[in-house]
Design goal:
- By secondary structure, this protein is α/β, with parallel strands linked by helices.
- It has a single domain, classed as P-loop containing nucleotide triphosphate hydrolases (Rossmann fold, 3-Layer(aba) Sandwich).
- The protein is built from 9 helices and 5 strands.
- The protein has a 5-stranded parallel sheet with strand order 2-3-1-4-5, with helices on both faces.
Length: 166
């Protein structure tokens, strides 16, 4: 398997899906949303899966699906919690470059609604701020490239990612 994919990681609301679809068109790559793959395989929305089987079991399913992805010249938008299972991240590193879409907490907070309805794998008692502080070092650990976004337009954000990939 060639290492010719672009794998987007980052917080929920960082723009992985939106930027990922636009980026794939701009660079002529296919597009995979790993959350959509999970939903298709499990036959349920993310929030339903988490409610039914719990956070840890969901993280295992997410990691398994991400580690089994076979892609060639694709932009892959991962779920925000993929970084909790190191083996999945190591597998993803073998098929592409990991790009962390780093966005200020304040912008994430503005963009997100109800985390549970959105299907965010949140630890019991955790706030969005707790989640941001816990995940940021993990995103940075696994990233090959960190793109700092300021909440600009989609087109400007895509340009930032393209520039970082060159």
């Amino acid at each position: 398997m060639k290492k010719n994919n672009v794998i987007l990681i980052g917080m929920p609301g960082s723009g992985k899906t939106t930027i990922g679809t636009e980026l794939s068109e701009k660079i002529g790559y296919g597009y995979i949303d790993s959350d959509s793959v999970i939903v298709a395989r499990e036959g349920k929305r993310l929030n339903e899966i988490i409610a039914e089987i719990g956070r840890e079991a969901f993280l295992d399913i997410e990691a398994k699906i991400n580690s089994e992805l076979c892609a060639d010249r694709c932009v892959i938008a991962t779920g925000g919690s993929v970084i909790y299972r190191g083996y999945a991240m190591e597998k993803l590193k073998t098929i592409g470059r990991i790009v962390y879409l780093k966005i200020p907490y304040e912008i994430i907070e503005q963009r997100l609604g109800d985390l549970k309805k959105r299907g965010v794998a949140l630890k019991e008692g955790f706030t969005l701020k707790d989640l941001y502080e816990e995940r940021t070092p993990l995103y940075e650990k696994y990233a090959d490239i960190i793109v700092e976004l300021k909440g600009d337009t989609i087109a400007k954000s895509v340009e930032e990612v393209v520039r970082a990939l060159q």
